Amino acid sequence: MSIEEKFARLGTDNAPGQEVRQAADGIEKLMRGDTLEGTPVDFSHGDVDAFLPTPGSLEVFSAGYAMGAKQAYTEYRGDIGIREMVAERLSAFTGAPVDARDGLIITPGTQGALFLAIATTTARGDKVAIMQPDYFANRKLVEFFEGEMIPVQLDYVNAGNNAGINLNELEQAFKDGAKVFLFSNPNNPAGVVYSADEIAAIAELASRYGATVIVDQLYSRLLYSGLAYTHLRASKIDPENVITIMGPSKTESLSGYRLGVAFGSKKLIDRMEKLQAIVSLRAGGYSQAVLRTWFAEEAGWMDERIRLHQAIRDDLLTVLRGCDGVFARTPQAGSYLFPRLPKLAVSYADFIKILRLQAGVSVTPGTEFSPHCADSIRFNFSQDHKAAVAAVERLVTLVDRYRA
Amino acid sequence: MSIEEKFARLGTDNAPGQEVRQAADGIEKLMRGDTLEGTPVDFSHGDVDAFLPTPGSLEVFSAGYAMGAKQAYTEYRGDIGIREMVAERLSAFTGAPVDARDGLIITPGTQGALFLAIATTTARGDKVAIMQPDYFANRKLVEFFEGEMIPVQLDYVNAGNNAGINLNELEQAFKDGAKVFLFSNPNNPAGVVYSADEIAAIAELASRYGATVIVDQLYSRLLYSGLAYTHLRASKIDPENVITIMGPSKTESLSGYRLGVAFGSKKLIDRMEKLQAIVSLRAGGYSQAVLRTWFAEEAGWMDERIRLHQAIRDDLLTVLRGCDGVFARTPQAGSYLFPRLPKLAVSYADFIKILRLQAGVSVTPGTEFSPHCADSIRFNFSQDHKAAVAAVERLVTLVDRYRA
């Protein structure tokens, strides 16, 4: 593949937060009616002004700075003291041991971890099973390394208490030679959590076919009341065949520090460090110190954060479900909502632009997550509660205005 | 190439700062005499406890944190306000315009910029000319993307006022199909600056053969007294064929924030942003704010920093040149010294381990920079002055002790 082709496939204009680089020529001709007033809401990512970073993060960063050279120049995989602290907490959280010395790497954000995980498992022509829908970068990562993507459908609409993975398709992907399976749990964008049965089946199939599983658990701490979460790494699977990815960028609102971790397979973590050495050297040294706050928040802080998100979720669902033809499954974890819209008189792509221009509401198009989700849009509802509800009310008004 | 082969070529055990992961089994058998007492010095990177970060960096970081979401979630290429500020200063420094909107990207360190620059210019089988010796990651980056490296020799030993690039070899590399030429100026490890004539010749050859030039100018601000520096981007060359890389990690001791910039070719910067979106999303948002201090240090601060480094440089040269058989060219910029050692009774690789164990002195082996430099070692002399001089005196003592 030529370098031009390779980069033509990496478009980011619709990626969350990049709308500022979009042109919207000619869209005015399609517009109907007046602008809707209200506080603009950018649902493409969480608002860290509405849900503030973990208390004390800046103080811990400053303490890291004060440590000087020791904190600025860590091993490429991160400071050993911090790795030891984090490994213990992640071991308790996930229910399976984490080796601080050889089985964990600190990365610049979970994006950094995902990049390294795909880069170290996927050579040109290797087959990789990925879910549809799933986090938009997954597809791009596989394409960048010239892997061959085998899509597996997630039927979250009709899945009952399951996330809705099509296990027959997953097995067929392994039969067809997929050596790697990459998925997010909870699913980004649909907000569904894989059931214990689904995780057991994934572990069993991956083991039978000798595949490596990379599971992105970025949102696994923000689990709504009464729900259970099953960690793949604590199930019946060879730990050397699993990489788990997490980070404090979302629930903890620490994205501005760019921190993530990958843990599990020592062989793969070792490769990931070799690659990180030429990609970015290390996660920012002083930022690494902020991981000291992770899983060590004051009592009740996380419960309250979950409660507040659940309240926003429920209010948005009420508004969305009041709109004829909208389908919205209840998110079980995380802060994403992924409703389907009814048929409209304009294309969904144009509707999303109109929504931004006429209602001050930015969302991410479903096509970023799956070619089969053009009628869906993703919201990150980690926002100011009132502003988010008002914004979704404006969305509903525009759905009615542009209804086919 | 299989993924195993690919990563076998990315060894980092001898990379600066990674010595902690090295085993040194059996080295005791080769040791002669006693341990030399003294403050341990890690010359593999600069000591930010000896040369502190730019005054005010933590305050500017904290102000970025206080800005909240706006600073945490920037465009992938970085905050536009900061890009505008930095573009103007880089334009003044390099003597050629920098386009803030389309011609500059903020990256996680200059390593991040180098990675993106090679990734966006080098497809499998593409030929890339690189200098020998040069920064050790250059070779690894070309190998990682399965490019074909064409080495060009830098004869810094016999170059007079030139850096010593073999221009015939560079032209031959272009004739043989190299589309990209990557080099550091000042050269890492040798500390030499390419003369105006050499830069003009590089520009002329690259233009004639239509090659893209990536120039790593990380140390270009730390220029010793009486010397001139020629910016390639301000010479006779199509600006779309040049990427310049800089950052505040070294001279300004801001490495703990992980900040770099690449600027020049709009086409390549655009690709680099697309790739950054899946590699690390962006340079840490709050860290980006620290660039506000860059090229805006208080009057006299940089002059004083240069003066102090020059004083260390001169003292180390005196000690090294007092040792029979050592050759050391005077660095013209930056804080690297790259002396050649005389013949020893142990291998140079073993000597470097012995040096660390017997004298508490860590250096980087010449083989990291060129296969032809096994007899050389690299020091980063941005260290406590007295400790550095004492450490190099211990080195000289050990050279005498292990002399062949």
Automatic annotation (TrEMBL), chains A, B:
Per the record, a Pfam family? Aminotran_1_2
Organism, as annotated = Aquamicrobium zhengzhouense
Keywords noted in UniProt:
Aminotransferase, Pyridoxal phosphate, Transferase
The lineage's top-level taxon is Bacteria
Q: What's the family?
A: Belongs to the class-I pyridoxal-phosphate-dependent aminotransferase family.
Instruction: Report the transmembrane regions from the record.
Output: none
Question: Which NCBIfam families does this one have?
Answer: PRK06207.1
| Protein name as it appears in the record | aspartate transaminase
- What Enzyme Commission number(s) apply to this enzyme? 2.6.1.1
- PANTHER family documented for this protein: ASPARTATE AMINOTRANSFERASE
Task: Read off the CDD domains from this record.
Answer: AAT_like (cd00609)
Organismal lineage: Bacteria, Pseudomonadati, Pseudomonadota, Alphaproteobacteria, Hyphomicrobiales
Q: Which GO terms describe its molecular function?
A: transaminase activity
